[in-house]
Amino acid sequence: MKTRVLFIIAIIGLIAGLTSVVVYNKKIKVQAPLAVNYNPYTAGIYATGIVESFQTNGSNVNIYSEVSSRITDIMVTNGESVTIGTPLMALDDSVQRGIVEKDAASIRYAKAELANAQDQLTKMQTAYRINPKSVSKYDLDNAINAVKIAKEGVAVAVGQYDSDKALLDKYIITSPIEGLVLRIVPGIGDYSSAAVGSYDPYTQGYLPPIQLGVATDFLQVRTYVDEILVPRLPDPSKLEATLFIRGLQNKSVPLEFSSIQPFTIPNIELSNQRNERVDVRVLPIIFKFTRPKDVNIFPGQMVDVYIKEKP
Description:
Blueprint: H1 2-24, E1 45-53, E2 61-63, E3 69-74, E4 81-82, E5 87-91, H2 94-130, H3 137-169, E6 172-174, E7 179-184, E8 191-192, E9 198-200, E10 205-207, E11 210-214, E12 218-226, E13 239-245, E14 252-260, E15 265-266, E16 281-290, E17 302-309
Antiparallel strand pairs: 1-12, 1-17, 2-11, 3-5, 3-8, 4-7, 5-6, 7-11, 9-10, 12-16, 13-14, 13-17, 14-16, 15-16
């Protein structure tokens, strides 16, 4: 009986062993990559870039509030076109509005003081004309000075009102350009700081509350060339470059050279890491290109760029 059991166990083990050999020796077909981009030039220099809205200086337009407060309203949406002066965001202005209302009351009080001082001066001047001895020169001079002081008081109150009213107007953030709303970071009820912007829970950092892009037929790509490849760059007047869109098989867009920022910087802008374990530096080169009509490209998109010297 025991011999039969051992024989059955041995047969089961043999079958399991043969099965495992067949399973683990089966060749698994490797999935082909979704898209592969190849260097279109014989001796092209590779670089990584990020798409931005096209403008003469800077990248996208970062909108910060000039005062710090809680956000009470957001008047635009992502992707919306705006013009100069379009209201973008409103902040809680209850404290500042109270200050302005107090300033308005101060103006009314100062004007009442001026009217009273002017009335007293008029009475003294009338009495002085009728009988110069009825009013002393000392009292008349004081009345004249009181009117001057009251006028200055009105001017000070009006100046304070204008200053505080100008600050109150900053609680409504408006668009400084004609363009497109690229990104809205905060929501209603979030806090906007004049110093650092609004907290973004996804990046766990502070970003501009609103980012705008310039509305043109062009986009630009800010290309970062590794410092090791910088010596191989041709003369700027002879730069030729091609952009490849990630995720598409060899989908290229010709680039036109715009400018070079002649200062190498730490390679932190694409990785968003403020501290690099190795201080790799890159040279920013900016190219522009016409928006392709057959494929979507958005600001903030990562692309591959190959650069060579024009023949």
